[in-house]
Design brief:
The protein is α/β, with parallel strands linked by helices. It has helices at 11-20, 54-70, 88-91, 94-111, and strands spanning 22-25, 29-35, 42-46, 79-85, 124-125. The chain has one domain (10-112): Ribosomal Protein S5, domain 2.
Amino acid sequence: MLPQHLRLRERRDFKRVYTRGQTVALPCLVLYWRKSAGCGPRIGFSVSKKLGGAVTRNRLKRRCRAIAWELLPFCLPGCDQIFVARPAALEADHGRLKAEMARALTLAAQHRGKGGPSKTGKAFKEGDKP
């Protein structure tokens, strides 16, 4: 389980990452990230009501938190990160979800340090060249 001090929980923090951060979009999830003042990574999760009821959404967030704990060494240090689930995440097994989260973190690490958010507002997609 992901420790409390590594979780992103405040609405203002989520809003700051959404509005000023960068994104990587994959079939099962979207990763938003932004540099933060802290030294360690903070990770948040978002699952829309469009994906199901509270039980379904909370189950998916628990699965993502468990995978984030496994991938913690690969998380972006000094960054706030938000994983937003897409409908395909409901159907994905543990292996696929873990692979997509790892891929998103890898793409984010490649794009990190190349300036602020995209001026066009478009997210990086899988297959884009850095």
